[in-house]
Sequence to fold (286 residues):
Amino acid sequence: MPNDNDYILTLSCPDKPGIVHAVTAVFAAHGHNVLDLQQFSDPASRRFFMRVHFGPKAGAVTAEHLARPFDELAAAYEMAYDIRPVAQKMKVLIMVSKIGHCLNDLLFRMKTGQLKMEVPVIVSNHADYEPLAASYGIEFHHLPVTKDTKAQQEARVLELVRRHGIELVVLARYMQVLSPTLCEAMSGRIINIHHSFLPSFKGAKPYHQAYERGVKIIGATAHFVTADLDEGPIIEQRVARVDHSMGPQELVEEGSNVESQVLAAAVRWYADRRVFLNGSKTVVFG
Fold:
């Protein structure tokens, strides 16, 4: 079990010999105990990924003393790295439209401690979930959007991101296509839940598409958002079996459970610093 005094190091860089030795040598030299280490070398992208859970240095109240040695490693290995306290909860902005099961699920898991995150603000293009936000003490912003007002609406979203120090935006069945401007501004920091097993049945009404094709399995996909609709790097997918007797609405009802599970898993892994972008794919440490 992680201790609130522990830390998480995440890093990625071009793959080459000596990275693990160099990283663990820093911990040893500064009196830190490595509690868990996961790594992956991708032969296709030739990139190296690592997540390290390590304990505090005796007598130290922060990990600031590690900044200089890791800055030196970053320069030597062309490395991007981050060190966060385990106790630091990720700040998440949730966007939703009129379908609320994923929003409900995320808020319940946050309240019960299953998700280590803080949700300071919820944004919706409809006002339906303002009472739900209020019941959790969360700021709610009703920001309607049309083709003519999308730029202004998304500018307000970005202002909320800056104001609240948001690290992740979650589209919990937010049924609007984000502009390339917003996708670029939050690249690698927006997770969407799509109600199909991508790459099958992209776009609108995937359950109806699945019904027309007579599928025997439906699914849900949590992925990073890019300017290309439903094409972002996939984080998690799960499925449920269906049969010929089920109509489109029954597929929707069956799929909603899968959607909630998949989105919660993706958000949990991201909040735990287990998800890394690797080109058009992801690395997810379990």
Remarks:
- The radius of gyration is 21 Å.
- Residues 90-284 form a domain with the Rossmann fold fold (CATH 3.40.50.170).
- The chain has two domains: 7-85, 90-284.
